[in-house]
């Protein structure tokens, strides 16, 4: 049974000039945003701040995770011109920080890694001062695919764990807990200069001990930045919310994460992986100054 949504999760939306400008540009450039495709509750806030997370490799996922609202099915062929259009949009919007993510493409030999790499390079060529974060799928555990992405020198490599080990078979169809952890730990084996990040959602029958164990596992995998947010069921066909965590509980998890040694923890009911991503620039600078 779905729990009743509390008052602190009511989102005030507004559609100002920045929102309309970015939405228009995405449509005109034939680009997708995970903000729109996944029905993110922060879409108006982020668009108003002049930021967006680009969704590459189409808008159809080959997996069927029961928490996600992205379409699933048989994807279209890879659009080889997409990296250039993302770079052009980044330049036109004068973005200082860009997040690039994708649907999962199990149909591609490298999972789409080379398109990630080309997109990173195109952005850095067009806007040299722009920081680039990539939020990648698990590439079915491929070390070589991960290496292809990292060789393009993203500033942040993000891969979301999403949930605790016990719930993986139910929540993340086709994924594996240890595979995702290994992907994150392999980043530093390839390039120690690249910052690692992951995210988790709460409200799917996990226990407090399981949450802190996941955080500990991430820290042991050399993850530096962590986002923690509330799971919101997109529809009655998705997994129901078992619990709505109070803002005080998110604040406590932030404190726990900081004590564990994460460089930064963004924790709150409406936090998503790309929420306040632009502000991560200061943590990148601080990291390199240490």
What are the SSEs and their pairings?
Layout: H1 17-28, E1 32-33, H2 34-37, H3 43-48, E2 53-56, E3 60-61, E4 71-72, H4 82-92, E5 97-102, H5 113-126, E6 131-135, H6 143-150, E7 156-158, H7 168-171, H8 177-190, E8 195-202, H9 208-220, E9 225-230, H10 247-260, E10 264-267, H11 280-289
Parallel strand pairs: 2-5, 3-4, 5-6, 6-7, 7-8, 8-9, 9-10
Antiparallel strand pairs: 1-2
Helix pairs in contact: 4-5, 5-6, 6-8, 9-10
What class do helices, strands and sheet pairing give?
A: alpha/beta
Q: Report the CATH C-level class.
A: Alpha Beta
Q: Would you count the extended β strands for me?
A: 10
Largest beta-sheet details: 8 strands, mixed
Placed side by side, the strands forming the largest sheet appear as 1-2-5-6-7-8-9-10
End-to-end CA span:
48 Å
Helical fraction equals: 25-40%
Instruction: Note the beta-strand portion.
Output: 5-15%
Write down the CATH topology: TIM Barrel
CATH superfamily: Aldolase class I
- CATH architecture annotation name: Alpha-Beta Barrel
Mind telling me the C-alpha Rg?
A: 18 Å
| Count of helix runs | 11
Uncertain segments: none
Task: Compose a concise summary of this entry.
The protein has 290 residues and is of the alpha/beta class.
Task: Describe this structure as you would to a colleague.
The protein is an alpha/beta fold. The chain has helices at 17-28, 34-37, 43-48, 82-92, 113-126, 143-150, 168-171, 177-190, 208-220, 247-260, 280-289, and strands at 32-33, 53-56, 60-61, 71-72, 97-102, 131-135, 156-158, 195-202, 225-230, 264-267. The strands form two sheets. The chain has an eight-stranded mixed β-sheet, with helices on both faces. The longest helix has 14 residues, at 113-126. The termini are far apart. The model has no long low-confidence stretch (mean pLDDT 85).
């Amino acid at each position: 049974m779905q729990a009743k949504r509390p008052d602190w999760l009511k989102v005030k939306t507004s559609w100002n000039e920045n929102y309309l400008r970015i939405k228009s540009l995405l449509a005109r450039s034939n680009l997708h945003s995970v903000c729109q495709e996944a029905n993110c509750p922060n879409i108006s806030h982020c668009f108003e701040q002049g930021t967006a997370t680009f969704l590459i490799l189409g808008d159809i996922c080959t997996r069927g995770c029961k928490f996600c609202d992205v379409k699933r099915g048989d994807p279209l062929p890879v659009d080889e011109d997409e990296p250039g259009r993302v770079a052009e949009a980044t330049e036109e919007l004068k973005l200082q920080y860009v997040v690039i993510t994708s649907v999962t493409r199990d149909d591609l030999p490298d999972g789409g890694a080379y398109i990630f790499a080309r997109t990173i390079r195109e952005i850095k060529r067009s806007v040299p001062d722009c920081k680039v974060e990539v939020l990648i799928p698990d590439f079915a555990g491929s070390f070589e695919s991960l290496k292809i992405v990292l060789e393009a020198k993203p500033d942040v490599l993000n891969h979301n764990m999403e949930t605790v080990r016990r719930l993986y078979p139910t929540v993340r169809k086709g994924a594996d807990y240890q595979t995702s952890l290994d992907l994150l730990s392999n980043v530093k084996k390839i390039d120690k200069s690249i910052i690692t990040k992951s995210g988790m959602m709460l409200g799917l029958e996990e226990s407090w001990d399981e949450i802190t164990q996941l955080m500990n596992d991430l820290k042991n995998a050399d993850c530096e930045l962590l986002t923690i947010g509330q799971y919101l069921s997109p529809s009655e066909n998705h997994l129901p919310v078992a619990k709505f965590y109070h803002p005080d509980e998110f604040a406590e998890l932030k404190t726990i994460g900081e004590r564990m040694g994460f460089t930064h923890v963004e924790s709150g009911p409406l936090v998503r992986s790309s929420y306040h991503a632009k502000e991560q620039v200061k943590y990148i600078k601080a990291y390199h100054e240490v």
